[in-house]
Design brief:
Oligomer: heterodimer
Largest sheet of chain A: none
CATH class of the largest domain in chain A: Mainly Alpha
CATH superfamily of the largest domain in chain A: RNA polymerase sigma factor, region 2, helix turn helix motif
Shape of chain A: globular
Helix content of chain A: 55-70%
Largest interface: A-B, 56 and 49 residues
Helix content of chain B: over 70%
Order of helices and strands of chain A: HHHHHHHH
Radius of gyration of chain A: 20 Å
Number of strands of chain A: 0
CATH architecture of the domain at 2-52 in chain B: Orthogonal Bundle
Largest sheet of chain B: none
CATH architecture of the largest domain in chain A: Orthogonal Bundle
Structural class of chain B: mainly alpha
Number of helices of chain B: 7
Number of domains of chain A: 2
Radius of gyration of chain B: 47 Å
Shape of chain B: elongated
Distance between the termini of chain B: 109 Å
Strand content of chain B: under 5%
Chain lengths: 205, 171
């Protein structure tokens, strides 16, 4: 039996430590899904992740093992993120900005773990690149961004993404396809000679 | 031709994912062998996807688990208190007081302006007062047209007046 489902069964019989273990397995994932999808860091990201698990805690007694737990968990997370983003957008001027990092005492940029082996220069450069990547992903349309994050950072298959986002397989493929082309143009090394502009006429195969 | 390159550009992500048919993949590979720009495009596609890995994870707060159980405790407490829990919050006391006073003021103003049909004991008092007034009018001018008991003698009118007045004073 799936380890998550075993923990859920234990939780249903009143074992609170089972929920503790379930959170231990998935909290980091949920926090980072929130972080990458909304751009929120620090306390707003933690609050949202905590809220996800509060909802899961309430709903788990009615959970039926027809779907995999993590797709259900990600679905709840995505729905909550969309709801929160709409709320933040309404109160943008007096709460967290959508671009993230405002309430983070560490200032702009994610709280990364410095590589102990790397020099200060290496760490600086890594942070620069990470910032560019973050910007490129955040600039993607929301539906493409969701697919990219689930596929690239959470390693979900196309089929699992259809479950989380509630869309068809062709829709998943199409979103990833568009996103990859955008990222290629934004982050590719050859962006200076973008495709279709510097083609060699004789190159037609 | 540039048109062929544009078509190849569109197919590159599907090629990378292995979603092309064997024939489509072969044609694309033939094009790549002769087109450096499209080869660069494929390299960019791969490198940009790999580069996403530079976006590092956010580290959870140290006390995230304790925070969760504390938040759950608070949430359960709120649920126990029900939807009127905000009334128990002292911060709301001045607002609630002002609201009650304002409601009382407006209700009073409204009550004075709207004519009210008396009922029960209040109605009997009003009717008794009317009878008294009529009786007094009758006593002072027995011939008055509107009074049906106009021809009644004075002492009888005085008796009615006494009864009516006593009912007004002690309903």
């Amino acid at each position: 039996m799936d380890e998550d489902l075993e923990l859920i069964e234990r939780f249903k019989t009143g074992d609170q430590t089972a929920f503790d273990e379930l959170m231990q397995r998935h909290y980091r994932s949920v926090l980072n899904l929130v972080y990458r999808f909304t751009g929120a860091t620090g306390q707003p990201a933690e609050d949202l992740a905590q809220d996800v698990f509060l909802r899961i805690y309430r709903a788990l007694p009615r959970f039926e093992a027809r779907a995999r737990f993590f797709t259900y968990l990600y679905k709840v997370t995505m729905n909550l993120c969309l709801k929160e983003r709409a709320r933040w957008a309404r109160h943008r001027s007096r709460t967290v900005s959508l671009d993230g990092h405002w309430d983070d005492p560490e200032g702009p940029g994610p709280r990364t773990i410095p590589d102990p082996a790397g020099s200060a220069q290496d760490r600086f450069e890594r942070r620069e690149v990470a910032g560019e990547v973050r910007e490129a992903v955040m600039e993607l349309p929301e539906e493409q961004r969701a697919a990219v994050i689930l596929h690239r950072f959470h390693h979900l298959s196309y089929e699992e993404i259809t479950e989380v986002l509630g869309i068809s397989l062709p829709a998943v493929k199409s979103r990833l396809h568009r996103a990859k082309l955008s990222l290629q143009k934004r982050l590719g090394e050859g962006t200076g000679e973008s495709l279709g502009e510097t083609r060699q006429p004789e190159a037609a195969g | 031709m540039a048109t062929a390159c544009a078509q190849v550009e569109e197919l590159l992500p599907a090629y990378e994912e292995g979603d092309l048919t064997v024939e489509e993949a072969r044609r694309l590979e033939r094009h790549l062998q002769t087109c450096p720009a499209c080869r660069q495009g494929l390299a960019d596609l791969r490198s940009s996807w790999d580069l996403l890995g530079a976006w590092e994870d956010l580290e959870p707060a140290r006390a995230w688990k304790q925070d969760f159980w504390r938040n759950l405790g608070r949430d359960e407490e709120r649920r126990r208190q029900g939807p009127w829990r905000f009334l128990q919050d002292r911060r709301w006391a001045p607002v609630a007081t002002a609201a009650v006073l304002a409601l009382g003021f407006f209700a009073g103003t409204f009550w004075q302006e709207v004519p009210v049909q008396p009922t029960g004991m209040a109605a009997s008092v009003v009717i008794s007062r009317d009878v008294a007034e009529i009786a007094m009018a009758s006593a002072s001018s027995p011939e008055t047209d509107f009074f049906p008991l106009g021809e009644v003698e004075g002492p009888f009118s005085a008796e009615i007046l006494d009864q009516a007045l006593s009912s007004v004073q002690a309903p």
